[in-house]
Amino acid sequence: MAFMRASSPHAHAPSKTGDVMRLVALATLPGLAALTLHFGWGSLVNVIWAIAVAMSCEAIILKIRKRPIAFYLTDYSALVTGLLIGLAMPPYAPWWLTLVGVSFAIVFAKHIYGGMGFNPFNPAMIGYVLLLISFPVEMSAYWLAPSGVEGQNYASLTDGLSVFLGAGGQAIDGFTMATPLDTFKTYASANTAEEIMSRSVFGQVGGKGWEIVNIGFLLGGVFLLYKKIFTWHAPVSMLTALTLMSIIFNPDQNHGSIGLHLLSGATMLGAFFIITDPVTSATSTKGRLIFGAGVGILVYVIRVWGNYPDAVAFAVLLMNLAAPTIDYYTQPRTYGHTSANRGIGKSE
Questions:
Q1: Residue 17: its pLDDT value, please?
Q2: Would residue 156 count as lying in a domain?
Q3: Which domain holds residue 32?
């Protein structure tokens, strides 16, 4: 019996970038729905505005660079960048704040390096960190108490839009509240963990409302794993490292419980939608494990001993810087060689 011999490639129905990005955007919907349910319409408004800004900036830069606009817009990488920044922003951040962050992410963090595939740092995290450093007051002033905390309901769509457009900044003052991670960090030096967790902003194990938001992003991440958009190595490694750091350095939970670190802030968004970026993270299997563990360790270190209560964005950017070195020392064995080239000498 003769067997047909065919040359490579052997891939069937390869996934296009646009298809992958659409699935990523779809997977964020449970988290976005939870944000809208618990914190009002602001997150939805911000996401729509951020996507519009991202797509517009992408089109303008492509026009300047004389690249085919429709071809690159339909890879939806700009849409995902805007979406991630919109999800990370305070729900009722004013329009100009999102405009600055998203436009900087597209122009300087992406296209200044040559466009998609050439950027060494995650564009969404670059834009978000720019805002954290440059506008710390604005980035902390528009976080809302989740619905039901101290009997409050979240702001109406009308009030939210007035703040978003800068026409009614006082309309939402009564609804603002520090995030759970920020609250815990503020009172950690003078109160016990039990006293802090008794505050109304906390839920069963994490921040009230934030628990559901993080579970929403976790569900979206599991969906992407099922669709084989990325492998489990980086997300599981990050969450495991964060858990181990909390167990080793925080046995009395004075720096927050494991549940608080896993189900508050941007933990699940970072684990499944940020560190899995194929361009700016490590590419080998061992590299992804190291990359994810590094992010988890840095998140805990910055949250507990640093100045920023969430820290996911800073941890990701620091590990983006280390990703090429990680890949250099974790190269897999090449077919035909007896050992892998680990960056020390040559493979045999």
A1: 86
A2: yes
A3: 17-177
Sequence-separated (6 or more) residues with CB below 8 Å from residue 292: 233, 234, 235, 236, 237, 238, 241, 271, 275
Helix spans in the chain (H): 17-27, 29-39, 42-64, 69-73, 77-88, 95-107, 123-134, 136-141, 157-164, 180-187, 193-197, 210-226, 233-249, 258-262, 267-269, 285-305, 312-329
Buried-exposed string 207-222: b where 16+ CB fall within 10 A, e elsewhere = bbbbbbbbbbbbbbbe
- Maximum distance among all Cα pairs of the chain, rounded to whole angstroms: 81
Residue 269 lies in a domain: no
Confidence label for 250 from pLDDT (cuts 50, 70 and 90): confident
Summarize pLDDT for 121-138 with one digit per residue, the tens: 999 999 999 999 999 888
In the predicted model, what is the mean pLDDT of residues 182-209?
69
Q: Considering the chain, what is the average pLDDT of its residues?
A: 84
SS3 6: coil
Residues with Cβ < 8 Å from 206, sequence gap 6 or more? 180, 214, 259, 260, 262, 263, 264
User: Global pTM?
Assistant: 0.87
Can you tell me the distance from the alpha carbon of 103 to that of 97, in angstroms, rounded to the nearest whole number?
10
Identify whether 280 is part of a domain.
Answer: no
The pLDDT-based confidence of 209 (bands split at 50, 70, 90) is confident
- Residue 316, CA atoms < 13 Å, CB-side half-sphere: 31
Q: Enter the DSSP assignment of 4.
A: P
Residue 56 falls within a domain, yes or no? yes
Number of domains in the chain: 1
Distance CA 347, CA 292 (A): 26
